[in-house]
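Much of what follows relies on a compact textual record of a protein's fold. The record below shows the convention in full:
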Amino acid sequence: MPGVYSCGTIQNHYVHIIKMSLLIQITITLSVVIQLFAAVIALSRLSLAKSFKAAWICISLALFLMLERRLISLWHVYQGGLEDPVNSLLGLAVSVFMLMGLIGLKTFIQTNA
């Protein structure tokens, strides 16, 4: 009969949703942890940034706001909400690149401060 789902089809659909939800939870959790490291590193480098302290404060605040945004997404997913997997992966990529950039900026800050 068209339009009628068998029990196996419905079960497979729910298994797919659960797997996707778990993948999204892991992705957002990793993003939160990496974003936290990036924000802490940015804040700790504030003392090195003597000549451009105001700009570094803005970068640090932006990183903490990005962290808050990821935490809200994580809370939403753990409450059973759905999150776009592409958005989750992009958030993880942004977190990784921010952390790598901040680690790389240490030498720049030390030589130009």
Notes: The CA atoms of residues 38 and 101 lie 9 Å apart. Residues 7-112 form one domain. Residues 7-44 form the longest helix (38 residues).
